[in-house]
């Protein structure tokens, strides 16, 4: 990320502006803001001159005598002739003044030196006038647009995105989460627009000096962190929802998409009601708006009272959006509204504890969606998907703890990842399962009540939960949550529990070590976790009891205490640890126990093992085969049983794992054997689900719809049954429609597969047809499906042209969507080589295109890192990344992880390729 020098105008005052001597990354603690009065004038009418400006008055309480005020400002022009500083409290309150300013570009500090000392206990008002260009960079206060199809004109809107540290791009402020203060916001804009902000409108009146402009003043907010401040000037329409408890609830979108707001407008209020009942705390604001923004860099943002979404996360069209799209939408809305309590009402003190809002909101969203849509059976799937994601990411040495030290802005952005979200969610689920629902809910409630409108850190949550657990008796008095949970949140990684049974004495010895994918690293002394041990046996089959029967403990110095489990069954019965994957750890057994498990899986009795544990066994054994703890013979015997499997979760588990092996093996001579093996295991379930035929309306269980969608996708990739010819026939029928934009005969849930298959096996005109549909589509979910399918071509020239279109910016692919298109090209056999070369040749222009959007480059690295597997290519890519540092600023962690993932691919190829090939041949 490039840091720009602050632009400061000092007209006539002769204020000295110097480089800063204060260089700590956090603001000084000698003062705090009490209230902000913010006025923002936005110019959106003239495309040649997009800009904004305004004035912020900050009431500041002085906590220690000081001669300066340090706050954040970035890329703002500050007119210092208009700066004022006056004392507001005390009898002798007089004007003070500012005699000089400094800037610190490394930390975005703007430092004002006062003429007289600022005295502890007094309140001062600082007034600053600022202005800037309204850019399209998807960060800070920026502009976005859409095309009005009737007038065929581009319409412009403005919107904010301040998390984690971009409020400073919009107005000078104390831009840290710990500095909460109420905001009074006034927006000034042309009368043809509407203004929205966190709070309801107080009044709108004509502008005092600008013709055809209005001023809209909003009610004063509750105390709020700067990253949650939000406002927008737009010409959108909205859909009101009726809420029994009086909160005004509105869903906003561009006028030509307002008909796609129905589902979100109906679902959102149910979510709000669920959380109000769960926490026993009413939503504290008089209104909440949710708005679909055409250009948005992340999924959504929980600004208090004005939640912003990318269009795919809020808009739903019954004609164009699949069940998967609908479930993703529900999940995102439930996640953002959970933040209204966890994040907005109670905010983390510093970004170290980002997970206190993100991990909690991720887990609460799964509970909420399950409550509102039990027919989806989505909770088990969400929990499994979160665990699969962290087992991958957290097995890297370059991963990080859930609660991690954060020293600079780029590190904050890097924390918005699977560890904060998915691992945070998984450790909360583990806690709920070992504490029980009553203690868990009671602990969360008391935490929210105690820290409402304040800031907290993870120890505060542990304290509330420990008290609740001891009160209900769900945790022994000698245990406390902090000791247990710090082992999961303050250290990187997760354990593998090695279970070695003694079949004569009917006992098992358990040991733990950190599981690492990189086999060059020693695993000895890599941490200790407090592990809740739930387990069951072949005779008992009590998978529903997820409470721990025993604990694996750690000494005070962090050593693992050896554990022996007594009274296990005899040598003819298996045991399974970690019922329903209730905690994020892997389990490896001795050879006899694996043999017993394989026998049951490959018999009619396979369903006697809980479906989540079937998914667990698949995931665990494929990991152990990858890193060499298990033989691929055993791993493939485990997954051979899938010929019988008809449930979603085990298939999800195997596909996630085989995807990684597939991306290496498809570049080798053994791919034919791998393909035959996959055909063998997929064919029975494909036929059971009636192939790619449109039988979706007759499937009673929604999770079976998702299973069919997933199986069809793999079946077409591996030419199972009639998948490819049927897909091509669907596409041909669509192409022969008189009005293909209105009438699409391809079944919604298999469109992504049909489009991709048809582009892969089709002609240039098939590609052009789909590109035209992309440009004409008005539904974001459909546009995303098409963008991804266009990357499936095997024509080199088509893919090269597509790569250029992606980063063109003028061809209708929005900056926030470009990653999907690039990933789609890079994921295919032909596209990978081209995408890698394009990325390496054009890193400078790609970096300029994203203009400091910190999350963008890592997303482009993701598909590349999974397919490089030779030592030569690893060295070449490593050199390239080292040479391109100036274009990869803010991506240090992503680069480290990329190189580690490539290294594990190289290790796999060198260690396992021959053995894997033999094992596959053996099963054919």
Description:
This protein is α+β, with helices and mostly antiparallel strands and 924 residues long. Among the domains are: 235 residues, Immunoglobulin-like, CATH 2.60.40.1730; 83 residues, 2-Layer Sandwich (Zincin-like), CATH 3.30.2010; 141 residues, Orthogonal Bundle (Neutral Protease, domain 2), CATH 1.10.390.10; 106 residues, Sandwich (Immunoglobulin-like), CATH 2.60.40.1910. Helix content is 39%, strand content 20%. It contains 26 helices and 33 strands. Strands 1, 3, 4, 6, 7, 8, 11, 14, 16 and 17 form a 10-stranded mixed beta sheet that branches. A 5-stranded mixed beta sheet has the order 19-20-21-23-22, with helices on one face. Helix 1 links the parallel strand 20 and strand 21. The radius of gyration is 29 Å and the shape is globular. The protein starts with 6 loop residues before the first strand and ends with a helix. The N terminus is likely disordered. Its EC number is 3.4.11.-. It is a lipid-anchor; GPI-anchor; Single-pass membrane protein. Keywords: Aminopeptidase, Cell membrane, Disulfide bond, Glycoprotein, GPI-anchor, Hydrolase, Lipoprotein, Membrane, Metal-binding, Metalloprotease, Protease, Signal, Transmembrane, Transmembrane helix, Zinc.
């Amino acid at each position: 990320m490039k840091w720009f020098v602050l632009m400061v105008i000092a007209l006539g005052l002769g204020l000295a502006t110097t480089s800063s001597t204060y260089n700590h990354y956090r603001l000084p603690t000698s003062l705090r803001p009490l209230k902000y009065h913010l006025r923002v004038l936005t110019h959106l009418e003239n495309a040649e001159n997009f800009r904004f400006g305004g004035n912020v008055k900050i009431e500041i309480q002085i906590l220690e005598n000081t001669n300066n005020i340090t706050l954040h400002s970035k890329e703002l022009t500050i007119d210092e002739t208009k700066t004022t500083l006056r004392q507001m409290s005390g009898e002798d309150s007089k004007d003070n003044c500012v005699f000089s300013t400094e800037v610190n570009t490394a930390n975005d500090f703007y430092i004002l030196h006062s003429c007289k000392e600022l005295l502890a206990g007094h309140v001062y008002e600082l007034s600053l006038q600022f202005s800037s260009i309204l850019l399209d960079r998807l960060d800070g206060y920026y502009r976005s647009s859409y095309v009005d199809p009737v007038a065929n004109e581009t319409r412009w809107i403005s919107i904010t995105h301040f998390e984690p540290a971009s409020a400073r791009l919009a107005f000078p402020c104390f831009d840290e989460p710990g500095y909460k203060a109420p905001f009074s916001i006034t927006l000034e804009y042309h009368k043809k627009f509407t203004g929205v902000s966190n709070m309801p409108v107080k009044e709108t009146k004509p502008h005092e000096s600008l013709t055809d402009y209005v001023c809209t003043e909003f009610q004063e907010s509750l105390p709020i962190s700067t990253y949650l401040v939000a406002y927008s000037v737009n010409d959108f329409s909205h859909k009101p929802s009726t809420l029994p408890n009086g909160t005004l609830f509105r869903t906003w979108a561009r006028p030509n998409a307002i008909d796609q707001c129905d589902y979100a407008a109906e679902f959102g209020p149910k979510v709000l009601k669920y959380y109000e009942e769960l926490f026993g705390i009413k939503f504290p604001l008089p209104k909440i708006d949710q708005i679909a923004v055409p250009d948005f860099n992340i999924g959504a943002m929980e600004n208090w009272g004005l939640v912003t979404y990318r269009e795919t996360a809020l808009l739903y069209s019954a004609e164009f959006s699949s069940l998967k799209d609908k479930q993703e939408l529900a999940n995102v809305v439930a996640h953002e509204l959970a933040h209204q309590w966890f994040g907005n009402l109670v905010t983390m003190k510093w970004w170290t504890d980002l997970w206190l809002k993100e991990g909690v909101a991720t887990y609460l969203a799964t509970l909420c969606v399950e409550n509102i849509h039990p027919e989806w059976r989505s909770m088990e799937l969400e929990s499994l998907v979160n665990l699969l994601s962290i087992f991958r990411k957290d097995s890297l040495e370059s991963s990080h703890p859930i609660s991690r030290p954060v020293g600079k802005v780029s590190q904050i952005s890097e924390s918005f990842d699977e560890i904060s979200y998915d691992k945070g969610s998984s450790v909360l689920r583990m806690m709920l399962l070992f504490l029980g629902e009553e203690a868990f809910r009671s602990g969360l409630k008391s935490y929210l009540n105690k820290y409402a409108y304040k800031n907290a850190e993870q120890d505060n949550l542990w304290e509330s939960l420990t008290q609740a657990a001891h009160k209900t008796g769900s945790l022994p008095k000698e245990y406390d949550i902090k000791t247990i949970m710090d082992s999961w949140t303050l250290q990187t990684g997760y354990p593998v529990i090695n279970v070695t049974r003694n079949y004569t004495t009917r006992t098992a010895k358990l040991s733990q070590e950190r599981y690492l994918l990189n086999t060059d690293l020693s695993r000895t002394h890599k941490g200790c976790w407090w592990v809740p041990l739930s387990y069951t046996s072949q005779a008992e089959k009590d998978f529903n009891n997820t409470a721990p029967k025993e604990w694996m403990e750690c000494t005070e110095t962090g050593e693992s205490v050896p554990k022996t489990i007594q009274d296990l069954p005899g040598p003819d019965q298996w045991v399974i640890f970690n019922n329903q994957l209730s905690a994020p750890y892997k389990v490896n057994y001795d050879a006899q126990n694996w043999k017993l498990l394989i026998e049951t899986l490959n018999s009619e009795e396979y369903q006697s093992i809980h479906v989540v544990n079937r998914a667990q066994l698949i995931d665990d054994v494929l990991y152990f085969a990858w890193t060499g703890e298990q033989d691929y013979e055993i791993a493939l015997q485990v997954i051979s049983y899938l010929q019988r499997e008809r449930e979603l979760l085990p298939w999800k588990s195997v596909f996630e794992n085989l995807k990684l092996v597939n991306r290496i093996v498809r570049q080798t001579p053994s791919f034919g054997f791998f393909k035959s093996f996959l055909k063998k295991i997929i064919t029975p379930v494909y036929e059971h689900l009636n192939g790619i035929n449109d039988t979706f309306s007759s499937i009673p269980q929604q999770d079976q719809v998702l299973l069919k969608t997933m199986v069809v996708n793999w079946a077409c990739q591996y030419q199972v049954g009639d998948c490819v010819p049927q897909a091509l026939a669907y596409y041909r029928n669509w192409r022969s429609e008189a009005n293909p934009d209105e009438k699409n005969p391809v079944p919604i849930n298999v469109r992504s597969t049909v489009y991709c298959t048809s582009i892969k096996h089709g002609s240039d005109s098939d590609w052009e047809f789909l590109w035209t549909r992309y440009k004409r589509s008005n539904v974001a979910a459909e546009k995303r499906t098409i963008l991804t399918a266009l990357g499936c071509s095997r024509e080199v020239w088509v893919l090269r042209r597509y790569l250029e279109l992606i980063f063109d910016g003028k061809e209708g692919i929005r900056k926030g969507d470009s990653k999907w298109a690039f990933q789609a090209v890079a994921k295919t056999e032909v596209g990978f080589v081209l995408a890698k070369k394009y990325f390496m040749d054009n890193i400078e222009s790609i970096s300029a295109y994203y203009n400091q959007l910190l999350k963008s480059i890592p997303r482009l690295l993701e598909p590349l890192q999974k397919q490089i597997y030779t030592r030569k290519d690893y060295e070449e890519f490593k050199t390239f990344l080292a040479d391109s540092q100036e274009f990869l600023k803010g991506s240090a962690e992503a680069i480290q992880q990329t190189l580690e993932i490539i290294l594990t691919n190289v290790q796999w190829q060198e260690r396992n390729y021959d053995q894997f090939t033999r094992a596959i041949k053996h099963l054919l």
